[in-house]
Sequence to fold (282 residues):
Amino acid sequence: MFNLKDYMKKQCEIIDNALDTDMPPETTRPTLIHEAMRYSVFSEGKRIRPILCLASAKAAGGTTDNAIMPAIALELLHTYTLVHDDLPCMDDDDLRRGQPTSHKKFGEANAILAGDALQTLAFELLSHSVAPDNYPPMQLLAELSTAAGSQGVIGGQIEDINHDKNLSLEQIEYIHMHKTACLFRAAMRMGAIAGNADEEQLNALSCYGTNIGLAFQITDDLLDDDKEENEELSCLMVYSQDEANEKAANLIAEAVKSITIFNAEDIEPMTAIANFILERQI
Fold:
């Protein structure tokens, strides 16, 4: 029987070792920014996006070695979004994963620069990865750039911080798609491309990533609803709790259905992660 806990632990170790190797040490000048970068990256995140990237590569016939650089680039990019999202001018959060946010520990200016440096490092490392022959050489860079830019994460963030008081379902879905699901979709596509997926495989893994990302954000909103004085944008502004739970379950079912073109053994991690996202309590 597939053990998700053991799988996640092993994959996290692989990803953390790669991050530790490819990030500048804290002792490298200027030491303050490298300390700040590492502080946020090694803050006990679950590494779901890079883990999915590695799983996608394997399903497409690739290896961890094929996809490890895209995987850690994704995690660096994701961490930058969290550092900036926590800033006083954004969500103004004091804690992230139970510890002070970057701007609370290092100051706002240093946190901004640490986020900038993480984003830049993501693309620097990814530039060392060339896509297989079936794809344009810079396709991996194109995937992450699209997911991160004004029509991806940044687009979702700006709609989030400038939304109307009376949100529509269309606005919520746009923000969820761009702020969250785009990066999950990129994780699956980058892994698939690194594994030299054919068109059918790429489309299936892309569909999985989109649906998983949307479900992830809905379950996040449901978890956040239990927190006192939560004022952040939420799908519960347009859905009831029961409707949100049903929507998340349908998205997870669609995600799992989309990858049934692969061998059952190859999709065990992705199926288990999908169920984990639906059932998670933290």
